[in-house]
UniProtKB/TrEMBL annotation:
InterPro entries: Chap_CCT_gamma, Chaperone_TCP-1, Chaperonin_TCP-1_CS, Cpn60/GroEL/TCP-1, GroEL-like_apical_dom_sf, GROEL-like_equatorial_sf, TCP-1-like_intermed_sf, TCP-1_chaperonin. It is found in: Cytoplasm. The keyword Nucleotide-binding applies. It comes from the Eukaryota. This is T-complex protein 1 subunit gamma. Belongs to the TCP-1 chaperonin family. The keyword Nucleotide-binding applies. GO terms for molecular function: ATP binding; ATP hydrolysis activity; ATP-dependent protein folding chaperone; unfolded protein binding. The lineage of its organism: Eukaryota, Fungi, Dikarya, Ascomycota, Saccharomycotina. PANTHER family: CHAPERONIN.
């Protein structure tokens, strides 16, 4: 590997020491300020224009940051941060950024007072581990088999999103999809949403027409118009090899002088295709799906054998079909065995939706993978619904792994803030200040929730603080009208994992940015 070249000439930007930290903190705060208004149920949407001229309408913190173009390294690292959060737990991306920005803002005065960053970082780490304990102590277990409790929980997560008009529907979709792909064998538990849930967005229709299929939907038609488009209980064979004449290895050049030779070559091709089709037909499949091509000749033989073929299916789709139908993807037709044939699918059909053909492989027994068919007015709206649905699914997934809930609406953050503030008093030396700063920073979540619905932040926050000081840690903000409410009654609860992960990510990134004491640009500035 080549080492990066660092130009240290007069044109190079170099910021060191406090200057670097100040510039990082300012950048991080700027990013946090952009997405501040996107937190909570009264969140505003952002309309983002991408360089290709498209627009993105969203209030998802991560989706916003992904689109905006920033150049400051600290801002970039904040964006990376929300991506981590998105990948790890799928929700809480806005929270992370706001929290990290606020922690940096609160520790800023101590940087200015020349407190050494290492002292600050140590205090931050200490506060983090205390905060995690506090979160755990205010969390309560939940029964994941209870539909009502689960729906309520998912509703709280997407209540802040564009889809809240259809939240009942979305919760149902998310829960059903997650339950479909859940695999449990003894201690082993797997819920892989990314791989086994596919969201198929088809503009048109009503959002309420959306559904989770008990199988797979593909945007494909059969290869030959005469093939059957409706088969019950099909035998499915999945291939990742082409059904075509195999050409010789690496560019074969053949010189032919006699006409018979040419005919013979064509004949060989034909024989070979016929042979592989015959081998296939021995297994009496009804549907053959391949990731590669199917030649005209092969289509002819398959059609004669009463087989329906689909070609050029994506690898990821093929994997899902394999799970749903119980088939094994086969690489060489010679290796095909009876056990590779999928028999779990109840219905194969091809239907026209809008002006495109879609293939359904549905009514599967225990599909373990599924497609979610989303309908909606326009593409932009469908994209946002898709993002929200993914959030909802990850909430459901997280809770299934760790069935513990923390009070939402800023209640958990307020509890952490109040308890850390108490603890701060027992900390000796200068470390007390940055520790206290973290405690103050946690108030930013309830404060922002109040601000975003137009409430009086100072008054409401002191009311809330008073409640928490009395030990009533389920009190938080009603995000609709900015009043102090008990979450036991108001009913906004969030998975503990998400809360834990958001503060972990926020504090660690704040530490990372504080640890930087030099920004040296490796890019030569333009003259
Ligand atoms: P994120 O991307 O961080 O998940 P959201 O916009 O989803 O951002 O906001 C999540 C925050 O809003 C959480 O702290 C949650 O507790 C809070 N929240 C969600 N719904 C409500 C509500 N109805 N009232 C008050 N707070 C809410
Ligand atoms: Mg959320």
């Amino acid at each position: 590997m080549q080492a990066p070249v660092v130009y240290l000439n007069a044109n190079t930007e170099r910021q060191s020491g406090r200057q670097a930290q100040v510039s990082n903190i300012t950048a991080a705060k700027a990013v946090a300020d952009i997405i501040r208004t996107c937190l909570g149920p009264k969140a505003m949407l952002k309309m983002l224009l991408d360089p290709m001229g498209g627009i993105v309408l969203t209030n998802d913190g991560h989706a916003i940051l992904r689109e905006i173009d920033v150049s400051h390294p600290a801002a970039k690292s904040m964006i990376e941060l929300s991506r981590t959060q998105d990948e790890e737990v799928g929700d809480g991306t806005t929270t992370v950024i706001i929290l990290a920005g606020e922690i940096l803002a609160q520790t800023f005065p101590y940087i200015e007072k020349n407190l050494h960053p290492v002292v600050i970082i140590q205090a931050l780490k200490q506060a983090l581990s205390d905060a995690l304990e506090i979160i755990h102590s205010v969390s309560v277990p939940v029964d994941i088999e209870n539909d009502e409790a689960m729906t309520k929980l998912i509703k709280a997560s997407i209540g802040t999103k564009y889809v809240n008009k259809w939240s009942e529907k979305m919760c149902q979709l998310a829960l059903q999809a997650v339950r479909t792909v859940k695999v449990e064998q003894g201690d082993y538990k797997e819920i892989d949403i990314k791989r086994y849930v596919r969201v198929e967005k088809i503009p048109g229709g009503e959002v309420t027409d959306s559904e989770v299929l008990d199988g797979i939907l593909l945007n494909k038609d059969v290869t030959h118009p005469k093939m059957k488009r409706h088969i019950e209980n099909p035998r499915v064979i999945l291939l990742d090899c082409p059904l075509e004449y195999k050409k010789g290895e690496s560019q074969t050049n053949i010189e032919i002088t006699k006409e018979e030779d040419w005919n013979r070559i064509l004949q060989i091709e034909e024989e070979q295709v016929k042979l592989i089709c015959e081998q296939l037909l021995e297994f009496k499949p009804d549907v053959v799906i391949t990731e590669k091509g199917v030649s005209d000749l092969a289509q002819h033989y398959l059609l004669k054998g009463g087989v329906t073929a689909l070609r050029r299916v994506k690898k990821s789709d093929n994997n899902r079909i394999a799970r749903a139908t119980g088939a094994t993807i086969v690489n060489r037709i010679e290796d095909l065995k009876e056990s590779d044939v999928g028999i779990n699918c109840g219905l194969f059909k091809v239907e026209l939706i809008g002006d495109e053909y879609y293939t359904y492989l549905v009514k599967c027994k225990q599909p373990q993978s599924c497609s979610v068919l989303l309908r909606g007015a326009s593409k932009d709206i469908l994209n946002e619904i898709d993002r929200n649905l993914v959030d909802a699914m990850s909430v459901a997934r997280n809770v299934m792994f760790e069935a513990s809930l923390s009070p939402g609406g800023g209640a958990t953050e307020m509890a952490v803030s109040v308890k850390l503030a108490e603890k701060a008093k027992s900390i000796e030396g200068v470390a007390q200040w940055p520790y206290q700063a973290v405690a103050d920073a946690f108030e930013v979540i309830p404060r922002t929730l109040v601000q975003n619905c137009g409430g009086n932040a100072i008054r409401i926050l002191s009311q809330l603080r008073a409640k928490h000081a009395e030990g009533q840690h389920t009190f938080g903000i009603d995000g609709e009208n900015g009043k102090v409410v008990d979450m036991n009654e108001y009913g906004i609860w969030e998975p503990e994992v998400i809360k834990q992960q958001s503060i972990k990510t926020a504090v660690e990134s704040a530490c990372l940015l504080l640890r930087v004491d030099d920004i040296v640009s490796g890019v030569r500035q333009q003259q």
